[in-house]
């Protein structure tokens, strides 16, 4: 079995004293191993990043951006290979992996605008003949810790922006599906990123804690669950670093009585079950305003679920692949068991699904609960599986109160035709990313990604304009020049006998 | 004796169960008492801010800005009274207080631009007929904790920007000189700030810890010493808040051989001894490049110090007033004693100064050390007094290495005529605010204030553009509208028999 | 009779060789005379502006802005006097004059943000150790030519932004109602504007042509009718100047079948008849989608018109005052005569109105035409009077085709509840300022004002961010410093024998 | 002989009723012919652009940008072919052509940022529950007219930005060297630009006048000589279009006594003689401050000229190729004859140069005049050839007065080490693009290019941020929604018997 190692200072490094299996979730087989970095290995990566920093921060932004132009091209040329690696280790359908990659490429495209994005503000005459301007200078060594569900996209949210801003980077991706992440980092090298500018260390808590405690690391970006996000934020900040830590979600979709139900249900199917619901922007809760709406939505979802195809992600004919690991499968299945116990109506039960030839895969069919209430654990917890709950309320305000009372505030959306409903909702809802007839309102790469409440710790969001500010330090220069000479013409005037 | 109380929900509140003396540092007399808020009082202020939030965040930004327009006018009309309060409790010379106030007013002027500053980014067609835009929404209750040395200016760095962004605010100013801060808050009420939008609580660690732990407080701005800044940052972040914490400084001025020495020395006198050196942007260290430069600078400083007038701040003929408290006087004097012990040359000794009629005041004359070395404690520590150290080095690079090796990175400056020296210095020095022939490079109000290294914890600087981002939460909306009807003309077309 | 003169270099100047009467339109009496400047007088104003330029462009932007802070205060303190002058010469109701003044003050508030607005873009390392930045420098002498309908607001669209950008200005206001404009300019002097920075010349085509041809005038802003706008644009550009020339309008309001009719009709009444329709953003055309909508709108408008009060503007109980001049009254009345001839249904005829005690005033009652068609002259021409035409169409697309076929493209609006209708309309309509349930979508002062098609000639709109770009010239500096010395340590290192 | 035709609606079109020879300036041979479009052909191109507009303006900006990403790649892959075409028809040395291409590619890179650049400003609550935002919408058909000296770069200044902003484009390049321009347009098609979005018509005044008069053309960008720029600006504006017209130049370099002369002279050689001085940013005038400086500069320039290699551009060992045409050669040579007559000292005479094997080529050696005065015609006129004039003055102020008195204000630079000299010069000089120790301060692609005085007609500069504003029309939307229903819960609440 191959072992997935680290990329440090431009070279692949084994450090395989400790390893862990990597599984194909469609078959349940261990297909590779991944090295788990020791503290020393992580420190070596940090040292490589530190050493690469001075030359890289002095490289003109346009030249840093040109590495991204070439990198985009390499990502497009290697798209099939990248997606195959994702599907092999994560399980999602190839088409879905391609969507993930495309979103990642969009962040690389944005990074190509570095010279524009790094412009500082210049003020003439802040006082008489005194000028002042701001520069946004690189921080030094920055780090990212990323989750299993988007092994390609989430790292690409972070390090392309970090490095075009002049920083160097140490990435610790998820150890469950490490191969595409590492391969992409190698493509960046091939595109011209100097050794040490981007380093990848695979690992577990040892690696994380080394990044959190090493004083050379200036900033940490994290995406994962809320308890870990809180730990990262508190620990990183206590160590004096800047930290942005994105956590969990429980995104609600409101369906209003005037919604276009065909559009809405079609959108909800993808948002709830795409990638098995293993997305921080997935929609696991539908809030139907009015019982008529609720009945109609549930009926249509049930009909759609009957048509949904579940099977290995390598077959693009499937709508949904397996869950990522055996443990996660058991956890999600446990929530379905619980929901029934809690009194929700299990309208569609995906627990018994069989995928011929893939009996050991971690497949769970789409599940649909109706009459879910806010007191139930299946409502409160982030399940991260193909389980959709329908809650029924009497008014838009009641739907919004429900959302605002939940601990998470990542994404949400409303289905309506009414301008006022949309404006009132988007203005007042305490959620960071809001869709109007858009089920997964993931901001495009030239905006920024961030939830509210316990979905994000820190003040700056991920990628987009906020990433520029996160990955740079403001320096303000105030300048005047003593005027002896020039205006008087004394110093610079030559002696003349005319 | 009067007791300075709190401003909560638009009303003055006593809560004088615990009090502390406020002294006139020019006479050593206790002239007032200040109430020290209990946790309950602070919670009442937070509750008032929480209650005032919904209406205030819905108030159009231009109307919030207009309160600032009126407030600016009231500050100007009440300038003499404000400055008298500052001098009475802090000790600085009236003219210097006026300078502080003017800087504070500049922040109010910037807050008047709220409608411009709060503009979000709008993107048409992020996909086919899909639009997306960002809003920068208010956070809710925000808080500020401010130091004794600028009782007027530092609070005005914080709350005007916080409130024009739609937040409400709880301010805990220094308990050593609380009166001008409170009076200014009352002027803001008079200018039209609704009750509860700005609250002031005087107090000590009890108040600070209540602000740090109350879950209703969304964000904390702090200015003070580095140990407290670290505590605030670690504790506030562990409680899930966004925090910006500005700490200590030890700002170096480099004097190059080609500098205009008359200008430089004149500038250094003000920067080193103005306000007794009790400024986070003061210059307590001069780095002379070359012994000739060093000799010339020391000789001129010595001559200038002989002319410097020390006395009560109420007399604008004085250059320097007393230190803020007896304890601080003793601490600063102790450093002068130590410097001599450590082997520095005490060129000018201000310890024996007498101010007739003010024998009990906390007056210390200007002190000048030459041949200070980086190993000395008087070099490493922030003394915050009228003590200037001259260090001598051989080159610009050596001077820069010295600065970069110091734990603080707040401000610095260079005196030179050479474009290349200035560019190399400003580009590479690891300090946040950099002057070229400008001794106190405090950014103007439309830029932002922030040091590097252990002078600032957090990613966003104080006031200016960064304050807008710090005091707002990004919300990104992605919107499409189902197209049934309009384009087809079915729904909106009336039945017609033509 | 008083003669309204000029303001040149800070002093009132008579130059009354040629004069013209100024009338009170509510009484028909000539109450003042206005001087008509000779070419020499205009040249004197230009010369004063030219002389004042160097010192003013070197004045720090924050100091220029502070003149605007004081000016805003003076405008507020003198509001009643200003409005009385407007009503006395223009005729509009005092409350309406107050609305005009308030809009003007908002432009002054925006001008207070000059230091923020004038920030240039700064790029470090456009090449190795090469920096580049943009400055937005003042042009020099700029000029404005403004119409009778907003004697206070339109000048305030122009010169406050021009002067805070560092320019000096020559204003030629309308000779029909010159007094408020001149008085406001005097307040600006009182606020601290140095002599010569703002000059006012009253006059006619002689003055206009002098401004157009004098090579010292760098830029011209114009608001008026389209034929004159075209003349100004062509002539000014042929003379090498930058020009923005805002012309006529014929703004359509679409009423959709799903509109909230009470709101819509209430909004339309003000938009059609406010200030006698003498506004470039007035709504003289309603496009009703569907006959049911048309019938309902006409019925409600008719009922509202029966309640509308017409009388002298000095009485705030009136809804509408007189037209501005006898000539204009005759012209508007002629259009009403013509409309009937062209076959439109004159639902409400305001021609016979009597205002007791003001029989010689230029009063015309509100007129309402139904079944107007695009072929009619009352549809095609800008009438600029209290005449509202209703056109009926079958679909939103037909309504939009109508608007797009008209030569003007200043403003428009739609009344609907439907998000898609609003989005499709605002995206595709060929009009510069678009309202959704907002009848007069005049952009706020921190956005910019500009029509499309033959309503605006030039590329930059009036006031707001575009005004900054219009009133400044870009200068881009690219800078590197020869590195001999500093890095090598040769030049700056002192000779040493250690 | 091949005939270079037009590119209309994605297809090559001959229209060779009128043709003109294209010469190889290194040999003097006619190698091709170029078609000169009739008015009908130009109208066909405009019609194609008009037809392509609706679909293209609705294409999401990111998709338009992606065409530019692919186009950049194709330009890089075809660089050698492009440069060969440039050298074959223009004469410049291949390396110099590569420099031109690289500058062009940088504009394409900037165009890749379209989604970022097109963001509008969004304001919440401009009034209670009223929002307003700006969109920057495409104009429609835009046009460009470009000069012979940069057949690749100047067109790439224009149309990539125009088309990513959503416009379609008609380009009329120089008829003297049309091939590279046309080939590049074909590469854009290959990159995915839909037919009709970019059209190229070769031609002469017939084509220009058709573009100027056709009402479908919304905007015109021009680069060429000042008399033609004035004609384009006056005529285009009189026809109601927006126009930016860049004209001639006479760029001065100031050499201060403290300049690093080795650097300065090396920089001046390239700036004066590179591309035979046929650049609008070339330096044809050196202003030496002081006779010592003047003597030293002239001596070094003379020595460098002795080493300069002149010959065919196909040999990268040459420093300078031939002039572009026989006519231009004669004109430039005539200026050298005149200079001697006018009394300037001809230090180096390049008139007699022989290039073996290329006797019929248009080669002129580098010429150097000393003691040139402002009264001489060789000083006043734009020669556009390898002729450098040295003027001597006594002070920086005198040098600046000279520059400010010249009719052109395109570029200028200063060589100095002194911060104050640089700041005083860059602040006050009346020139749009200013270098400090940078001889050709052409702004990078993410800034904008524009001269002052008679070097630019219009208010917006070429390429960079200004191009976004030039190629878009501002639309401002103000929106409120009637609130019936949602907040009250009436409309959206379902009937319930609970």
TrEMBL record, chains A, B, C, D:
Gene Ontology process terms (BP): L-valine catabolic process; thymine catabolic process
Leader sequence segment: none
UniProt protein name: methylmalonate-semialdehyde dehydrogenase (CoA acylating)
InterPro entries per the UniProt record, alphabetical: Ald_DH/histidinol_DH, Ald_DH_C, Ald_DH_N, Aldehyde_DH_dom, MeMal-semiAld_DH
SUPFAM superfamilies cross-referenced by the UniProt entry: ALDH-like
Source organism of the structure: Niveibacterium umoris
An MF annotation (GO) of this entry: methylmalonate-semialdehyde dehydrogenase (acylating, NAD) activity
Record-linked Pfam families: Aldedh
Record keywords: NAD, Oxidoreductase
Enzyme class (EC, first level): oxidoreductase
